[in-house]
Design brief:
heterodimer; A: mainly alpha; two-stranded antiparallel ribbon; 18 helices; 2 strands; 74% helix; globular; B: mainly alpha; two-stranded antiparallel sheet; 21 helices; 75% helix; disordered N terminus
Chain lengths: 492, 513
């Protein structure tokens, strides 16, 4: 792929493809098959352009391409660096899988307004590409807001009173936190430093007192509502009224990862890890993240609705990544970056399983899912694999990122945090495993259980099998991802 | 007649070309066309003539802008009488730009009105309507172009009197337009009276009415009670016209019951002009040094700006009618502009001036959209708007774009002004204001979202047909909506002009004009 396009063209292509997807879906409103096939082509094109960038740049950092200069110091600009590239590969790769799944789900479930659904979906991916490749905080903010706006119609898709209420909460918290808090942080940063460019080593060092740095970090941490740090987490469960493909790609991968990705970017390129460590500005964040990890897991145990349980599990897992930043060591950042990938792979599998169960049986509560494992073995095995990866057992992807985070905690002497991480793993077992156990080993009392193969349409269970397989593959390739991210922590 | 300002030079009689007469042409074209329309009395000619006049105004102001874009100034002496005795028109980059804005919005609105006006005003009144519209345009442009304090009052009255009648035209839809107009008439007259009393006091104390001349003389007598009283009268008078909180009570009703094209035109230009005059008097005539001595900024402007941002946003949220909501939101947005003045810095004034422009085009777009809804469903209450996102997709999409600009979403014009305003607050070290600004933006999200929810999430009424307004009405609406995006992404023109204006204002020079 190398040399097919230069990096700047490829960046624009990776955003142009999803943009075309939006238009295409709206134009081909009535030709379902043609529309869905072409959208897959577009997803594939997006993925190829991202791969092309990967081939060009490797784990290096590219030049900055200024697309538009709004004011001096306020530019829409793009560049490529390892973390963003990783995020782009992840999102575009999983988009293809989810698109297939989405077709299966939307058709199998007789949902309405497919064209609008897939158009908004493409728009969301467009925003994600913008976030991944943004070269400064302003550009990132711009696409961050675009992502919120584009996913709102997806959450409200069913247009029932519940959906509208959920979508309203979703929008209110995400928009509210970003405009009210994050924007203040951004403008503050700009007022202090006169720039918003992501710079290796940070831009704040020496410009701000330790006390103020802690406050600024708080503005960022709470303002980036998509990272779902408590108490700004309510939008995530509220968004579960959305059709499952949305929950899968957007609320397990794109949207929430955009949040923690922003968090990582701010930690690495705005504050600078060394500056954070030196000032201790992030110490308080360690404890808040730890609280989020435990509290969300506990809440997850109380939820009988499968999607709600997964949502709270996501909140807990996102705080791992925030924790990685807050620890302010290279190991922590590495663990955070890696967890972004491994959790995405695991959680998307779990959500797709939830959707698959819903389409086939229309069951949403865990207590009703007894015995389903024999009917839908692929779904339940995938669910088992995804769960084990989230819990962090070898040989599944999640084990590495958790391992790195534990190492990072040990490095900084935060031994209590090690305890928190271990307890959290136990809690993961407690809230994820019962479903598998119910599915395989329990039967509805009294009923003769016919063991027939009852998976949904192909397009429904193939994608989730793929991502489950991905969880295993990633375990063996975690090392290469780690190498890929190495430049992040190289001293500038 | 067009010559340098200096009085010592003798006036040479040179052959004058039409280009030298541009400043007066700018005013005289609509001023002559208005009675022409009435005297001709041919209904079919009314719209073409009015539109032609407004387009000519656009041409004139473009030509003026081209002459002064390099930073030079044109001083035009009316009737050849030299200032300060004679009336002087002054044109420079900034007010040429404002003239372009006013005539531009007028042309866009008139273009829309050819088809759109029918729904709200019966055709027999059209000729008079267009005549008044042109008079109003004359007045607004006159206020901007003149360099004479009393002349400001004269043009102001021309625009106000025509505005009262234009608002009352809403009576064909709803009789309450009469009370709304009457209310505005009383309040507006009080405002104008206050203003002219202020001018009178100034004349008593200084013996001149030329603005540049006034500035020189006021600088020598800051302690003069008459001057101080004049200042108070002028600020209150203009505050009434600009609908600055708490002098805004006339506005929501007037905007609700006036015909939509009138509101689109007024919201984009009229209150903005009053604010412009206020700026001009505060900073050019009275000078920043004077402002520092009187407790206006911290005791009145800042507190009321904050109250406006919140109280009016909340009442905007509580409205059940889109037009009313937008009217209340205008008062809130004016709060931002006042806050910019209250911050009393170069960046703060930049924010005020740029928001003046950005909010002008945003609101004009929104009210034109309202006009489109009224055209099709006969009203703009949320009840009537239900599901129109489906049946009127193009109008609604434009409304969403303009609505986002009203909120200040990045990438739109509204964001640029808010960004600069927050930056100004940080510059002064007033974190709390920065926070309040963004907090009130949340309220804006809430009230704009009510519109979007009504349009898109509610189901259309039974048997509703897809019924979009004609293309020729969509065109001006989209032109304005897209311009909010354009000015959100390309700020060279707006930011450049706003910065130039702010430097002129802060330095107290007459450079703004």
């Amino acid at each position: 792929m190398a040399g097919v396009f230069d990096t700047s063209t490829a960046i624009y292509l990776s955003m142009l493809f999803p943009a075309i997807g939006v238009v295409l879906n709206l134009l081909l409103r009535d030709q379902a098959n043609l529309r869905d096939t072409m959208t897959f082509g577009i997803a594939f094109g997006t993925f190829l352009s991202v791969l092309c960038i990967l081939a060009n740049e490797g784990s290096g950092t590219s030049d900055t391409f200024v697309a538009l200069s709004i004011m001096p110091g306020l530019e829409i600009a793009f560049n490529v660096e390892p973390l963003g590239l990783l995020f782009a590969v992840l999102a575009s790769g999983l988009w293809m899988v989810t698109h297939l799944y989405g077709i299966g789900y939307m058709r199998g479930n007789n949902e309405k307004d497919h064209a609008r659904f897939f158009a908004c979906f493409s728009f969301a991916i467009f925003s994600v590409m913008g976030i991944a490749f943004s070269a400064n905080m302003f550009t990132l903010f711009l696409f961050y807001e675009a992502l919120t706006v584009s996913t709102y119609p997806l959450v409200a898709h069913k247009r029932t009173a519940d959906a509208i209420k959920g979508a309203r909460t979703y929008l209110a918290i995400l928009m509210g936190s970003s405009i009210c808090i994050q924007m203040v942080a951004i403008i503050w940063t700009y007022a202090i430093t006169g720039t918003l460019d992501f710079t290796a080593g940070g831009i704040l060092e020496g410009q701000i007192s330790h006390m103020m740095a802690a406050i600024l970090l708080a503005l960022y941490a709470f303002g980036i509502g998509k990272a779902a740090l408590m108490p700004f987490h309510r939008w995530l469960p509220a968004a579960m009224v959305a059709p499952t493909p949305v929950s899968a790609l957007l609320h397990a991968v794109a949207v929430v990862k955009a949040g923690v990705f922003t968090m990582l970017k701010v930690g690495i390129y705005i504050f600078g890890i060394d500056f954070l460590a030196e000032t201790g500005a992030s110490d308080w964040l360690i404890w808040l993240a730890a609280y989020s990890i435990i509290a969300a897991s506990v809440v997850a145990m109380t939820k009988d609705n499968l999607k709600a349980r997964l949502a709270y599990s996501t909140i807990s897992q996102l705080s791992y990544i925030t924790l990685g930043v807050a620890l302010a060591t290279s190991m922590g950042v590495m663990g955070g970056g890696l967890h972004m990938v491994t959790h995405a792979m695991g959680k998307i599998t779990l959500f797709m399983c939830a959707g698959s169960i819903y389409v086939v049986t229309h069951k949403t509560e865990i207590s009703q899912m007894t015995g389903l494992g024999r009917r839908m073995p692929v779904t339940f095995i995938a669910f088992l694999i995804g769960s084990l990866s989230i819990i962090g057992l070898p040989p599944f992807a999640g084990s590495w990122s958790k391992w790195l985070l534990i190492l990072a905690s040990a490095d900084t002497g935060e031994f209590i945090i090690i305890g928190v991480l271990l307890i959290s793993s136990l809690l993961n077992v407690a809230y994820l495993m019962p479903l598998v156990a119910k599915g395989f080993f329990m039967t509805d009392s009294g009923k003769k259980d016919p063991i027939t193969f009852g998976e949904g349409p192909l397009l429904l269970w193939i994608p989730l099998a793929l991502t489950a397989f991905g969880c295993i593959v990633l375990f063996f390739y975690a090392g290469s991802i780690q190498d890929f991210l190495l430049p992040l922590i190289a001293t500038p | 007649m067009a010559s340098s300002v200096s009085l010592s030079e003798p006036i040479h009689h040179v052959a004058l070309s039409l280009a030298d007469q541009l400043p007066i042409l700018q005013i005289i074209i609509p001023f002559i066309t208005a009675p022409l329309i009435v005297f001709l009395g041919v209904r079919q000619l009314a719209w073409p003539l009015a539109f032609l006049a407004s387009v000519l105004c656009v041409v004139t102001s473009s030509l003026l802008l081209k002459q002064v874009i390099d930073g030079s100034e044109i001083s035009y002496q009316l009737g050849g009488w030299a200032p300060p005795l004679g009336i002087e028109y002054r044109v420079d980059a900034v007010n040429a730009f404002v003239l372009l804005l006013i005539s531009g919005i007028a042309s866009v609105v008139l273009f829309w009105a050819r088809l759109g006006l029918k729904a709200e005003v019966p055709e027999r009144s059209h000729a008079l309507f267009y005549a008044l519209f042109l008079l109003c345009l004359t007045g607004l442009m006159g206020v901007v172009i003149t360099g004479d304090a009393f002349n400001v009052f004269v043009f102001l009255e021309i625009s106000s009197l025509s505005t009262y009648v234009l608002i009352a035209q809403g009576c064909h839809q709803d009789k309450r337009a009469f009370t709304a107009s009457y209310n505005y008439l009383i309040m507006g007259t009080i405002g104008a009276t206050f203003f002219v009393i202020g001018i009178g006091f100034l004349y008593m104390a200084t013996g001149t009415l030329n603005m540049a001349d006034l500035a020189d003389r006021i600088a020598l007598q800051h302690d003069n009670r008459t001057i101080q009283a004049a200042f108070a009268f002028i600020v209150v008078g203009m505050g009434l016209k600009a609908a600055i909180y708490p002098l805004h009570l006339w506005m929501p009703n007037a905007y609700t019951f006036a015909p939509s094209p009138v509101v689109a035109f007024l919201s984009g230009t009229a209150t903005k002009m009053a604010l412009y005059v206020l700026l001009r008097f505060m900073f050019t005539v009275f000078q920043p040094a004077f402002l520092e001595e009187v407790p206006l900024i911290e005791a009145i402007i800042l507190p009321f700006a904050i109250v406006a941002m919140f109280a009016s946003s909340i009442s905007a949220f509580a409205q059940r009618d889109l037009k009313r909501m937008l009217a209340h939101s205008s008062v809130a947005q004016l709060g931002y502009m006042m806050l910019g003045i209250g911050l009393f810095s170069h960046t703060g004034l930049t924010a005020t001036v740029i928001h003046l422009f950005n909010h002008g085009i945003t609101k004009a777009a929104l009210f034109l959209g309202v006009g489109c809804y009224v055209f099709v469903v006969g009203g703009a209450s949320y009840e009537k708007l239900k599901g129109l996102g489906k049946t009127m997709p193009w109008t609604s999409a434009a409304m969403v774009i303009a609505g986002l600009s009203l909120v200040g979403v990045p990438g739109t014009a509204g964001f640029v002004s808010k960004w600069i305003l927050v930056q100004a607050a940080f510059e002064q070290g007033w974190w709390i204001f920065a926070f309040l600004i963004v907090l009130s933006s949340i309220l804006a999200v809430a009230y704009v979202w009510r519109m979007i929810e009504a349009l898109y999430l509610a189901s259309p009424a039974e048997g509703a047909m897809s019924q979009e307004v004609p293309f020729l009405m969509l065109l001006p609406l989209w032109a304005l909506a897209l311009s909010t995006l354009y000015f959100g992404l390309f700020t060279d023109i707006t930011l450049g002009a706003a910065k130039a204006a702010a430097s002129g204002l802060m330095s107290g020079s007459s450079g703004m004009f």
